[in-house]
Amino acid sequence: MHCFPCYDVRQYTVQIGEAMATAALDRKTSRIDLRMTDEQKRQIETAASLAGASISQWSLSHLLESAQQTITDQATVRLSEESFDEFARALDQQANLVFTEFAQGKTRWEG
């Protein structure tokens, strides 16, 4: 199976990694309010406590991990071997056609 990004996700990975690494240094001015059941809140509080983190630290860390994974998943196309070969042939055919038309054409200075 071949995987390749539709666009460069490294930029997002770096930005999220930097955000996590510098979270303690940045002045936090944005908020997200979440509604949840009492049981969901207890689970989050327990997980944060077991991890030795505040609820905000634990939640932000897990939200950023999930965001990064979603961005990566949406930016990656997975093809079977057969589909990849077909895709590569289609690209080659289009490239050959464009090159042939270009090579047969006249330049601006040729009039």
TrEMBL record:
GO terms for biological process: regulation of DNA-templated transcription. The keyword Flavoprotein does not apply. Coiled coil: none annotated. It comes from the Bacteria. InterPro entries: Ribbon_hlx_hlx, TacA_1-like. Keywords: Toxin-antitoxin system. Belongs to the TacA antitoxin family. This is DUF1778 domain-containing protein. It comes from Muribaculaceae bacterium Z82.
